[in-house]
Automatic annotation (TrEMBL), chain A:
<dbReference type="InterPro" id="IPR036105">
    <property type="entry name" value="DiNase_FeMo-co_biosyn_sf"/>
</dbReference>
<protein>
    <submittedName>
        <fullName>Predicted Fe-Mo cluster-binding protein, NifX family</fullName>
    </submittedName>
</protein>
<feature type="domain" description="Dinitrogenase iron-molybdenum cofactor biosynthesis">
    <location>
        <begin position="13"/>
        <end position="89"/>
    </location>
</feature>
<dbReference type="InterPro" id="IPR003731">
    <property type="entry name" value="Di-Nase_FeMo-co_biosynth"/>
</dbReference>
<keyword id="KW-0535">Nitrogen fixation</keyword>
<dbReference type="Pfam" id="PF02579">
    <property type="entry name" value="Nitro_FeMo-Co"/>
</dbReference>
TrEMBL record, chain B:
<dbReference type="GO" id="GO:0051536">
    <property type="term" value="F:iron-sulfur cluster binding"/>
</dbReference>
<dbReference type="Pfam" id="PF01656">
    <property type="entry name" value="CbiA"/>
</dbReference>
<protein>
    <submittedName>
        <fullName>MinD superfamily P-loop ATPase, contains an inserted ferredoxin domain</fullName>
    </submittedName>
</protein>
<dbReference type="Pfam" id="PF00037">
    <property type="entry name" value="Fer4"/>
</dbReference>
<keyword id="KW-0479">Metal-binding</keyword>
<dbReference type="InterPro" id="IPR017896">
    <property type="entry name" value="4Fe4S_Fe-S-bd"/>
</dbReference>
<keyword id="KW-0408">Iron</keyword>
UniProtKB/TrEMBL annotation, chain C:
<dbReference type="InterPro" id="IPR017896">
    <property type="entry name" value="4Fe4S_Fe-S-bd"/>
</dbReference>
<dbReference type="InterPro" id="IPR017900">
    <property type="entry name" value="4Fe4S_Fe_S_CS"/>
</dbReference>
<dbReference type="InterPro" id="IPR027417">
    <property type="entry name" value="P-loop_NTPase"/>
</dbReference>
<protein>
    <submittedName>
        <fullName>MinD superfamily P-loop ATPase, contains an inserted ferredoxin domain</fullName>
    </submittedName>
</protein>
<feature type="domain" description="4Fe-4S ferredoxin-type">
    <location>
        <begin position="60"/>
        <end position="89"/>
    </location>
</feature>
<dbReference type="InterPro" id="IPR002586">
    <property type="entry name" value="CobQ/CobB/MinD/ParA_Nub-bd_dom"/>
</dbReference>
<feature type="domain" description="4Fe-4S ferredoxin-type">
    <location>
        <begin position="90"/>
        <end position="118"/>
    </location>
</feature>
Amino acid sequence: MKLAISMTGESLDAPFDARFGRAAQFCLVEPESGVCELVANPARDASGGAGVQAAQLLASQGVTAVVSGAYGPKAWKTLHAAGIRALLAPDSAHTPTGREMLEQFCAGTLREADAASHDGHHGG
Amino acid sequence: MKEIVVLSGKGGTGKTSVTAALAHQAAHATAGRWLLADADVDAANLALLLDAQATVAEPFVGGAVAVVDADACSGCGLCEAACRYEALICDAGGCQVDAIACEGCGACLDRCPSGALALVPQTVGTCRRSETPYGALHHAHLDPGQENSGKLVTAVKRRARAQAEAEHCAGLLIDGPPGIGCPVIAAVSGASLALLVTEPTVSGREDLARALATVTHFGVPALICINKADLYPDGAQAIEDLGAARGIATLARLPFDLSMTEALAAGRPVTVQCPEAPISQALAELWRTLQARLAEVTTDSKT
Amino acid sequence: MRLVVASGKGGTGKTTVATALAQTAALTYAVRLLDCDVEAPNAALSLHPQWSSAVTVTRPVPRVDATRCTACGRCAEVCQFNALAVVGGGVLVFDDLCHGCGRCVWICPEQAMHEEPLAVGQIDAGYTPDGILLAQGLLRIGQPMGMPVLRALKRWPTAAALDAPFSDAESAHTLLEIRDAPPGASCPVVETLRGADAVILVTEPTAFGLHDLRQVVGIVQELGLPAWVVINRDGIGTAPIAEYCAEQGLPIALRIPLERRLAEALARGRPLLDAAPEYRPAVQTLLEQIVSGVAA
């Protein structure tokens, strides 16, 4: 399987990005090996529908689950249609690294977003 | 982080004057720092009341527009037929793009047999950040005639949120645009609370009803503030009733007070210019009530 | 002839002036008033028309025939607004991101897409007791884009829109169209100004009024339209509107002082000329000035 983690920086030890559609990049990782492949998010500066575009990118990369901070309704719907599990990072006082997210994923402690977790950023 | 957006439906109800006074209260009568944003990018006036200094501006690139390569264009007119926005005008001499009408869809590119068209990103305004005595202000300027699709509003909010989060601010106070369309939807999304500033006029009430419906449609809790309430007491009552029927409380009735005008002429929040005026007292009280409501709303959403 | 009443800043009294002009003009011309502020139309609140028609405004949105779609992804690739997503072997359409350009339908190699109308607003029309034909655009709640409603309003009336003998009135008198513009200085204001012959700019002498007036004047000058300025709530502030107008060569055609009595009457929804009939001659003069100015 292939997991995507929204990231602000360029390695798994960089801070995780709580935004989905506007994330700087995604780290695509196979949990078994822990090998990380970076994919820039072309949607980060999209004028609208960033979540839709980001979700399609992950679908085209064969991703089966994603970890991010929140999903808008269009992003969630697109991920759902693509059969990609949308997982939520827990609320925390400090910004976790990508590696911490990966560990929590492997430990099975991440909650699945069962619907959009925010109401979308219009025009954004 | 908490986020209050100030809206009105109808323009000119005193939204920005109220926001400026609340910004002053947020800075001087609240624990924790608040940041400020002006999401009315089409008529960005908050900076005029907040003594904005040290402004840093950067160009904002919005959508794309079609551009014609005059050398390649044969003037065949296929693009004109494809365009649904009447943005292309063709004759034997060639084709021209009306950049204001163009929505940047690219339908013309598909039809052009000569490959003479391209989509080019366009600068449509500037994003700005200023320092004010009441905290940092994120604002913007939309170039006249550009499409206010909410993109620039979203950009302003994104920048304000990023700074507020990085600096662990308590909240973000946003002056919103009038109306109910895209810019309003962009301003409302993600807010903890919307404060609707209205006036007791027939049109104020009508526009408030539409704005309330929009805010509720997007699931944001709303509260009402009636400005110039004594101008038409029956009208003010009608607004309170309208709110009550929808379960929306009226937090304040502000008096028709020329101090507001004096403060506007002086370019300061009324609570700074005329701190003893009845309206300033009412605004200070409004801020305290808002804080209490905000605490309730944020507790509710966690349960 | 087509006049636009615009302002930049909201709440400066655009609708007050537009309705006063329409009532005055109706004594001489066949007047139609278009309320182009589709997010907050207010002219009807003081003119009390008898609505006689309501036309739904739609915009086209794409729909997919799943039996023909091969999920090739071309439609999502060309869409500039991210309104389409091709995932899981099918196409998702997000109506509120769609601009209705039709590109996806045209590009689809399987001809698996067609368009359907999506209701986004309506146009109400009817005569007021003063004999003004009033039409307003009304954007539906939750719909992001007002432009389709505004464009439809400008094209109105369509053949089926009204049974009233509008064309007779048109031939009997000169037709005058007055457009009440939305606030601001973005796209919808430009759209309202397109095709007009003259503009009346309503402002107030505050820093806000002047700031927003500058924005609209920029557009008006770019479109090359003659403009006149009305200063409303004169006395409310000290912003140098007169100096600015002199610099720009804009004539100040009318000043309406700040008076609590007027504010109270307007709040109740009374038209200006009803609350303060002494303004009739001044509004008449304003109208004559503009009509002769445009003709010249």
